[in-house]
Design goal:
- With 115 residues, the chain is mainly alpha-helical.
- The protein has a domain of 68 residues.
- The longest helix is centred in the middle third of the chain and has 42 residues.
Amino acid sequence: MAQISIVQVASDTEDRVVRQPQMTTQRWMIAVAIAALALGAKRLADRRACFLTRAEVEADRADDYANGRACLKEGYDVPGMYEKLRDHYLGLARKYRLAASRPWLPVEPDPPEPK
């Protein structure tokens, strides 16, 4: 009887071997979906950061025109041009802040500067 219990103990330890799970098609699909979500989230975060930076740049330009710190190009020296340019760049800053809050949506091209 002592030999039988030794054989049983040996077979119990063989059954305890941990096997790694097989990568089935379903598991591969889940892995790919998780990777795609992570990459998509990263892309949206990068796009949001880009839009926020652009909004800040445009707001700084508007501030420069509002305070008369910007130099006007040739042909722009008309009355009220500083105000027109300030309003133009404030509009761009608003546009890019809105785009940063919804980075998955497309952004329209910038309108030309007023003349």
